[in-house]
Amino acid sequence: MKTKASLNEQDYLHSFMSTMTQKSDTIINYVLAVYFLLGIGLSFKYDTFEIGVGVGTINLLAYYSAKFFMKNSKFYQYVLSVVLAIFMAQYIYQMHGMFEMHFTVFIASTILIIYQNWKLQIPLTLLVVLHHAGLAYLQNFIYNDANGLQVYFSQVNFDLETLLIHTILAAVVFFMNGYWAYYFKE
Question: Who's near 52: CB < 8 A, 6+ residues apart?
Answer without folding.
Answer: 39, 40, 41, 42, 43, 90, 94
